[in-house]
Amino acid sequence: MKSTFALLTMAGLSLGTSALAQTRDTMSIGVSIEPPGLDPTRSPSEAIGTITYNNIYEGLTRLDRDGHIQPLLARDWTVSDDGRVYHFTLQENVHFHDGTPFTCENVRFSLLRAGATSSTNPDRTFFTNIADVSCPDTTHADITLKKAHGSFTYELAWNDASILSPSSADKNASHPIGTGPFLFQAWQRGDHVTLSRNPDYWGKTPELKAVTFRFMPDPLAASNALLAGELDAYPSFPTPEILGRFAGNPNLKVVRGTFPFKAILALNNARRPFNDLRVRQALAYAIDRKALIQAGADGDGTVLQSHMAPNDPDYAALPDRYPYNPERARELLKEAGIKPGTQLTLSYPPITYARDTSEIVAAYLEQVGLIVTLQPLEWPSWLGRVFGQGSFDMTVIAHTEPHDIGIYDRDNIYFHYKNPQFHELFEQYEASDNAKDRHRLSIALQDRLAQDEPNVFLYSRPRDTVLNRRISGLWINQQIAACPMADVTWQP
User: What single string gives the DSSP state of each residue in 406-469?
Assistant: First the structure.
C-alpha cells in the first residue's frame, strides 16, 4: 500500500502538471517555405498568407474554417439592386499596431492602391473594377464597382485585400503592421518569424502569448523536430510517406483535411509550340497522372480535369478527355509539326512537390520525343521571372487560392491564356448573384478550360496536419492560404 505521503506527492505532481499544461501560452508551427516578404498585397506567395492572414492583417471580410464569408473590419454591408454599390459599416475603436486609428480612409487607400497602375498586387485585375471608394464618415465606406461582380465580398476576404495604413504600407514587407490579434515581433532570416499577442486587439484577445513559424523545408528534419517536441504542429506536411513515423505516438496525431490544392503543368500559351492546342493536348496525353499521384502523393489524390479542387462547392467531376496515351501524344505532336528532339525548359520553384512532379513530368515528355531541361529556381526568381514576367516555357506549380478560376480571364496572367468564349462565360458568371446560375456557369467555365487545356491539369491532394494532441482550434481544412492562430489554444 502506498503511503499517505506518496499519494499526496503524486496528487501534487498531477495537479502541478495540469496547471503547467493550462498555463502554456506559446506555440511553434512548422512551415515548408520562407516567405519572400510579409506583405500579401505585393506577392502571391502562399507562405505570406500562412503567417499573416487574420494574424497580422485583416480585411473587410474573412473566410472562416468552413469557407464561408464572415464580417471582419466591416461589421455588415448592403448591396444596391444593380450589384454595383456596396455600403459597408465598419468596426469602431480599431487601431493598427502602431496606434493609427482604422477609418474609412484606410479602406479607400488600400483598395485604390491595390488597383493602381503601379500596383504589384497579385490580384490587381480584381481591384481595377473598383470605380471609387467614398467615405460618408469615418465608420462607413461606399464602394462603387464599374460592373457587378458577384464574388466581390468573397474576394475581399483574400490575403491581398488586407487593409493597410498609409503610414506603414511601404514597410510591411519587412515589418508588417496591421489591425490583427498578433503583432510582428521578429524575423530571423532562414529560420523563423515570431508573432506576439496584441494586448490592444479590438476583438477577442488570443490565449497564446506568442507564435513562432519555423521554416523547415526538409520533411525528415521537420519530423524529427515534431518527435522531439521542438515543433508543436506542422500544417500541410509536405511528404505523405513520412507520416508513418508518427503512428502510435502518444503526443502527436495526424489529421487529414482538405485545401484548394491544384497542381498544374503551366504552359506559356504566348510561345511556340504551346500556342497550338494540339501540342497542349499532346502534353496532357503524354503524362500518366494517375501514376503521378501514386508517386508524388502516396496514391492519395484526385486527377484534375480543370482548374478547380474537389473541396470547392462548384467542383465538377468532368470526364477525362486526356487519359494516358503516349501514342496519341506522338500523333498530335507530329500533326503540329513538332519534331522529335525538340527542346523545352521546365522551371520549378523550391518546393518538394514541384521538384518531384517536374522530374516525373520531364521523364514522361521525353518518352514522346521531347528533350526537357529541368530548371530549379529560388522563390524570388520564380516569382519574378515566371509569375511576374511570364518568361518561361513550362512550370509546375500548385495554385492554392480558393475558387480562383477567374485568373484565366486576366490580361496579365503568367501563362497568357486568352479565350473570348471563356471571357463571355466569366462575365455572365460575375454579373449574376443567383446561386444556381453561378453554379451552372462555373461548371461551363471548368468545361471550357478542359477543352482548351491552357495548362495541363495534374492533380489535387488532401492536406495532412501533424499536431500535438493537446492543441485545439488549428485549421485542419484550409480554405485559403492561412494559419489563423487567434482561436488556437492548449488543452489540459
Answer: GGGG-TT-TT----HHHHHHHHHHHH---HHHHHHHHHHHHHHHHHH-SSEEEEE--EEEEEET
